[in-house]
Amino acid sequence: MPERGYPIILEASILSADFAQLGEDARRAEVGGADVIQVDVMDGVFVPVITFGPGVVKALRQWVNLPLDVHLMIVEPERHLEAFAAAGADRLIVHQEACLHLHRVLQMIHELGVEAGITINPATPLAVLEDVLDLTDLVQIMTVNPGWGGQTLIESQLDKIHRLRTLIERRGLRIPIAVDGGVDRTTAPRLVEAGASVLISGSSLYNDRATVAENVTLLRESCHDVTWRG
């Protein structure tokens, strides 16, 4: 595991699951050993695709006991925070690029009694996070451009992850770094070495070559004993 005792957390992104049986596929991830379910909410504006709403989160809450990370790839996310929290989200993750008043949005999330996460796109510099790090429970680095599953890792984000981990350590904070996009058995060890500890994976878990449980095991084994190279 990375230095400072950050455990490796595996999140199953249901964006790559079968939309006709989301509940069953979320449960398969839970039974298979995933730690968290991530629900990618897309509005067709911030990203081109439209996916899920609060109703899906509420339905999933009945299927699994795992925490639900709700990744809001939507404009004006503050308008929908209460609905997703009420539906059963355990953490709401907002894009810095979509929040005109990010500090206020993070406060609003905490006031709803759920964890607050920030995510940034590949082209967004780390500087935008410096004044709100103390308000966040997790920083998620997009290692692909948001909107679709099955993309290839953008290599430049490895350095960004390393710089973010260094910044967090220098500030004396304890904030896990999540990575979303192109996470598989090949890239996972490199991402952990760079400083990530939360690995979000969809297409590498929900594929036809093996069961979800087998894929979770293989992904976890790929970063066994790997440490952050600080």
Could you walk me through the main structural features you see in this protein, from its secondary elements to its overall organization?
This protein is an alpha/beta fold and about 230 residues long. The protein has one domain: TIM Barrel, CATH 3.20.20. About 30% of the residues lie in helices and about 20% in strands. The protein is built from 7 helices and 8 strands; from the N terminus they run βαβαβαβαββαβαβα. It has an 8-stranded parallel barrel with strand order 1-2-3-4-5-6-7-8, surrounded by 6 helices. α3 (about 80-85) links the parallel β3 (about 70-75) and β4 (about 90-95). The radius of gyration is 16 Å and the shape is globular. The model has no long low-confidence stretch (mean pLDDT about 95).
List keywords for this structure.
7 helices, alpha/beta, 18% strand, 230 residues
Layout of helices and strands:
Blueprint: E1 9-13, H1 22-32, E2 36-42, H2 54-61, E3 68-73, H3 81-87, E4 91-95, H4 102-111, E5 115-120, E6 138-142, H5 156-170, E7 177-180, H6 188-194, E8 198-201, H7 212-222
Parallel strand pairs: 1-2, 1-8, 2-3, 3-4, 4-5, 5-6, 6-7, 7-8
Helix pairs in contact: 1-7, 2-3, 5-6
CATH topology: TIM Barrel
The name of the CATH architecture is Alpha-Beta Barrel
- The residue-averaged pLDDT reads 94
Topology as H/E string?
Answer: EHEHEHEHEEHEHEH
The percentage helix is 25-40%
Main sheet: strand order:
1-2-3-4-5-6-7-8
Instruction: List how many beta strands DSSP finds.
Output: 8
| The number of domains | 1
What is the assigned CATH homologous superfamily? Aldolase class I
Distance linking N and C termini = 13 Å
**Which CATH class applies here?**
Alpha Beta
The proportion of residues in beta strands is: 15-25%
Number of helices: 7
**Biggest pleated sheet:** 8 strands, parallel, barrel
What's the overall geometry?
globular
